[in-house]
Write a structure and sequence with these properties.
Blueprint: E1 3-8, E2 17-22, E3 29-36, E4 39-46, E5 54-60, E6 71-77, E7 82-91, E8 94-103, E9 109-115, E10 120-123, E11 126-127, E12 139-147, E13 152-164
Antiparallel strand pairs: 1-13, 2-5, 3-4, 4-13, 5-12, 6-9, 6-13, 7-8, 7-12, 8-10, 10-11
Length: 165
């Protein structure tokens, strides 16, 4: 298996990543993204609520070469929580998203492989039964997300994101 790193956070300008927060009612979610000691740190606080919500970070990735890639690889230190990777494709039909969950071990550096075949299609947060297949060549942006199903603090330290063949 060949690995190729496409984003290394020890050299990354954090302005490439945008913080997104969906808090429909009370302001009980917070999220931040910064670089520290060679890791991109996505952290914040989620308070369990009746309404759906999330914290996420997103970066444009058009121009990165995913040709022939079988999936993504993440080099990270987790906190025991589950997270989602959300890939967006720009197509003539509009923006389609594809997501998959990954699970972290608390305080342990891990390499996590996410095959493109395991990403599920979605549009505006709803899983789609029929959609165009995920074509890595058309990936325009990538996001990391935590949902409101967890309660309390979260911290995900990402060293690198890559593709593997």
């Amino acid at each position: 298996m060949q690995e190729r790193w496409i984003m290394e956070f020890n050299h990354l300008n954090t302005s490439q990543w945008k913080e997104l927060l969906h808090d429909p009612i009370t302001g009980n979610r917070s999220g931040a993204f910064y670089v520290s000691e060679g890791f991109g740190v996505f952290s914040g606080d989620m308070q369990e609520m009746d309404e759906n919500g999330y914290c996420s970070i997103r970066s444009e990735v058009s121009g990165l070469d995913f040709k022939e890639a079988k999936g993504l690889i993440l080099d990270l230190v987790g906190d025991g929580q589950s997270y989602f990777i959300d890939l967006r494709m720009l197509l003539p039909l509009g923006p389609f998203g594809f997501y998959t969950a990954f699970y972290t071990l608390p305080g342990i550096r891990q390499k996590i492989y996410l095959p493109f075949s395991e990403f599920e299609p979605s549009y505006l947060g709803e899983t789609l039964a029929a959609s165009p297949p995920l074509n890595p060549i058309h990936i325009s942006s990538m996001g990391v997300m935590v949902l409101d199903v967890m309660d309390g603090d979260f911290e995900l330290k990402i060293r690198s994101i890559g593709a593997y063949k």
